[in-house]
Specification:
Strands 1-2-3-4 form a four-stranded antiparallel sheet, with no helix packed on it. It has a domain of 86 residues. It has 145 residues and is of the alpha+beta class. A hairpin with a 5-residue loop joins strand 1 and strand 2. The N and C termini lie far apart (116 Å). The protein contains two helices and seven strands. The radius of gyration is 27 Å and the shape is elongated. About 14% of the residues have low confidence.
């Protein structure tokens, strides 16, 4: 008689201890949907302290390419010549690690640094244009004298 009671108590205790944490933890999450533009599926694999997220996506006619989500901006990328690119993680310096399959289907690891090139802001172009216009005007004035 002791064994069935002990087994019952053990089973109930296990269920309570194993199930309770999932209910408490699950209710404290906020979920955000991440979909790369035009993708038929998107999978996120890594995030850094800045909130940048990396993963892979597939779209009709395109399979297994990488993405970097920084703020609300998606940057889609692929290792040149690769059949698939799968970024798995990103560190706080913005370096991305993952793997890719080359044209023969052989897998390789990769480390991508500076995936995103800095594009000058429109104000930088305005400043450059103003400076060039002033330089041309100054040069014409010099040639006129």
């Amino acid at each position: 008689m002791r064994i069935p009671i002990l087994r019952f108590v053990t089973t109930v205790t296990c269920l309570v201890l194993c199930w309770a944490p999932y209910q408490a933890v699950g209710s404290s999450f906020e979920f955000v949907i991440i979909d790369a533009p035009g993708a038929s599926y998107t999978q996120a694999y890594g995030i850094n302290d800045s909130g940048q997220i990396v993963g892979q996506y597939s779209a009709p006619g395109i399979s297994n390419l990488g993405f970097l989500l920084s703020g609300n901006s998606f940057t889609l990328f692929q290792i040149p010549g690769a059949l698939s690119t799968v970024p798995l993680g990103i560190n706080d310096s913005g370096q991305i690690v993952g793997y890719y399959s080359d044209a023969t289907g052989i897998g390789h690891g990769f480390l991508a640094t500076n995936v995103i090139s800095n594009v000058p802001e429109p104000s930088s172009f305005l400043l450059l244009g103003t400076g060039l216009a002033m330089l041309v005007a100054w040069r014409r004035k010099q040639l006129a004298h």
